[in-house]
Design goal:
heterodimer, A: about 300 residues, Rossmann fold, 2 domains, four-stranded parallel β-sheet, B: alpha+beta, Ubiquitin-like (UB roll), Fumarate Reductase Iron-sulfur Protein, Chain B, domain 2, five-stranded mixed β-sheet
Chain lengths: ~300, ~375
């Protein structure tokens, strides 16, 4: 399956292991990535806060580039925040013909146009994997079932709310796909209070206490539920849950030491890739215990 | 008629006992509401079961509760829908429901009894905090204030609020920061900031921007948008408050709200993608990289953030080269052109789907054209 691939800024910035692991995992799932290397930032909600016409134009530009990728099934992203920010713009662009025309005028000098199409989609890898590739196929490809690994899902707000905008009418189970995938790769999904809550990242520069109390609380809840690690399809969540974890521990006044995997990393482990090539050495919270469990599985 | 089991969280402070769960089975038609179910249980099984309610038509906003973990009005949630959700297993139900419809009091507010929370202690106190009345200037006119109908369109969404508190109950910022002014009160604040008759837009915005628990304490989680029974979209109103504070009045607050927005927007204009290494220092310096590294308050914040940055460097997430050099997009001039076209205009264009209707609600042809939001007022 060929997809127009939008990795987002953070997966090529402060979480390079995410983009790297996606590139390794894609061929194992028969996904051909055509990277949109001329596309711009999605705005992450911040440009939307500043000027709606601007953010809608910037994302229409990305969509238009994706629509030009010949033979592609649609656009794929690997970031919950990109998904949410782009879905918000797409909803407005699709809702009103006059508005779409207005936005497309800004793209004309570049020879681009976003066309509303009922079968053109922009999907996070999580959605694409469950809805297009299918869990059966994933199960078939698993060479190292992650048996015994207890994984706490962490979705990221932007792909769970608001449901009206995010395709939950057609796909009502999108808020449990992570559990399904965790199960499909042989691991055990852990239920805990924070799975669909906010990591706090959007306010890390504005109110550190509000931000890191959220991250810390969810990490603590996952630890209390006996999770070995968390997994998230959002690199911004990863920054708050992993990079900031030592600081988050101070805000919740208890030790925290739980690794956080990127979604493609977890899949990669099950598909036989090694932790090192998946960039797990770049995490702030050491992934040793997860690696040890995975290594033990290989030995069996 | 089918039987529905309601698993209700009971609590009576006068009894001295801890809260507990109690199951009630009611025999009602599927289209009847969860509130009907609760009232039936009260009438037939336990007259002490307490809930606040009145209109039973999603107008009075009294019967806010959490159903299967999600804040909602009990009167406009059908038993059949709630049961279906319960069968599926709600997200993070605090009780293991075994298919029962789980009903709890709203969150973020103290429980007075059973499903009744203390709205005065939280919700109404926060509403009062934003001065929820019009502050016009000068002598009042002889008769009513005359306003162009067009000028009021912008605030109709925030006026739809029925003060049920569902958004307050669901708010994830308030969960960790009880002092956060919160979604309902901030949506109410926009109702006046967007009202042309009010003469204190800038004062209101400055107040809410400078408060550490104000507009910049919203974690942008969409929880309030998801649960609001009236589509007020409180978070969207908070974003509009931010837009007015930064875009119309350039309020440089001490919470980095202005700086963060300016930094982000400017970085994308300059590079096309996010140059993360510059986001923090620019945010601390009202958008300026120089101020962000020289101003004492900014330097202090940079030092506070240094451990996280160093951890990133130590693990090779970030290289010194990446910190210093960020490649521009190949077509960066096109991004810049788009910025100039749109930001060069005085008017900000906003398409509010609450007003023009979403897809499927009437054909695209009979939609009103794009709504204009006024630009700088000062």
């Amino acid at each position: 399956m060929r997809v127009a691939y939008w990795p987002g800024c953070v997966s090529r910035g402060f979480t390079p292991e995410l983009h790297g692991s996606m590139e390794l995992v894609a061929p194992l799932l028969d996904i051909e990535l055509i990277e949109l290397d001329r596309a711009n930032c999605c705005g992450a909600g911040v440009i939307a806060e500043h000027n709606q016409e601007l953010v809608d134009t910037l994302n229409a530009r990305t969509f238009a580039m994706a629509q030009r990728v010949a033979g592609s099934a649609g656009m794929m992203n690997i970031c919950s925040t990109c998904q949410g920010a782009q879905s918000e713009c797409q909803q407005r662009l699709d809702a009103d013909d006059d508005y779409r025309r207005l936005i497309n005028q800004h793209l004309r000098p570049e020879g681009l146009e976003y066309k509303r199409g009922d079968d053109w989609t922009n999907k996070n890898l999580l959605w694409l994997l469950v809805e297009e590739i299918g869990l059966e196929k994933l199960r078939e490809r698993v060479v190292r079932p992650l048996e015994g690994l207890r994984v706490a899902p962490f979705y990221g707000c932007y792909i769970v709310r608001p449901t009206g905008r995010l395709g939950y009418g057609e796909f009502p189970d999108r808020d449990r796909y992570l559990e399904w995938v965790i199960d499909a790769v042989g691991a055990t999904p852990v239920e805990y209070a924070g799975s669909h809550k906010c990591c706090g990242f959007p306010v890390i520069t504005m109110n550190k206490a509000t931000s890191l109390r959220q991250a810390g609380r969810h990490l603590a809840d996952a630890i209390d539920a006996d999770a070995d690690c968390l997994v998230t399809p959002c690199p911004l969540c990863h920054l708050n849950l992993d990079l900031q974890q030592p600081d988050a521990a101070k805000f919740v006044e208890r030790p925290l030491d739980i690794p956080v995997l990127h979604f493609p990393q977890m899949i990669g482990l099950a598909l036989g890739l090694e932790p090192k090539e998946l960039g797990m050495g770049k995490h702030v919270v050491r992934t040793r215990d997860v690696e040890r469990k995975v290594a033990a599985l290989a030995a069996v | 008629m089918p039987d529905y089991t309601l698993k209700i969280r009971r609590y009576d402070p006068e009894s001295g006992d801890a809260a507990y769960w109690q199951d009630f089975t009611v025999d009602l038609a599927p289209e009847r509401s969860v509130l009907d179910g609760i009232l039936r249980a009260r009438d037939q099984e336990d007259g002490s079961l307490s809930i606040r309610c009145s209109c039973q038509a999603a107008i009075c906003g009294s019967c806010g509760v959490r159903i299967n973990g999600k804040s909602a009005l009990a009167c406009n949630t059908k038993l059949s829908d709630a049961a279906e959700r319960a069968q599926r297993g709600g997200i993070n139900n605090e009780a293991t429901s075994n298919g029962a419809i789980v009903v709890e009091p709203m969150g973020n507010m103290p429980v007075l009894k059973d499903l009744i929370v203390d709205m005065d202690a939280v919700h109404w106190k926060k509403i009062q905090r934003v001065v929820p009345w019009l502050l016009p200037e000068g002598e009042p006119p002889e008769r009513e204030y005359i306003v162009d109908a067009e000028a009021m369109i912008d605030v109709t969404q925030s006026m739809a609020c029925i003060q049920c508190g569902a958004c307050v109950s669901a708010c994830l910022s308030m969960e960790v920061d009880p002092e956060f002014i919160g979604p309902a009160a901030l949506a109410k604040a926009y109702r006046f900031v967007g009202d042309p008759r009010d003469a204190h837009h800038e004062d209101r915005l400055r107040d809410l921007a400078e408060d550490p628990h104000g507009i910049y304490d919203c974690t942008h989680c969409f929880a309030c948008i998801e649960v609001c029974p009236k589509d007020v979209a409180p978070m969207s109103q908070i974003m509009r408050l931010r837009r007015r504070a930064t875009g119309d009045y350039a309020i440089k607050d001490s919470n980095n709200g202005y700086g963060h927005e300016k930094a982000f927007v400017d970085i994308v204009e300059r590079w096309g993608t996010l140059h993360e290494a510059q986001l923090l220092p620019r945010s601390f310096g009202d958008g300026s990289l120089v101020k962000g590294q020289t101003r004492p308050a900014a330097v202090k914040q940079l030092i506070d953030s240094a451990p996280a940055a160093l951890r990133g460097l130590a693990r090779g997430k970030v290289s010194p080269r990446k910190v210093l050099i960020h490649p521009k997009l190949p077509d960066q001039k096109e991004v810049r052109r788009i910025y100039e076209e749109i930001e060069g205009r005085d008017e900000r264009i906003e398409l509010n789907l609450y007003i023009v209707g979403e897809e499927g609600e009437g054909g695209a042809d009979d939609k009103e054209p794009v709504q204009g939001e006024s630009g700088a007022e000062s």
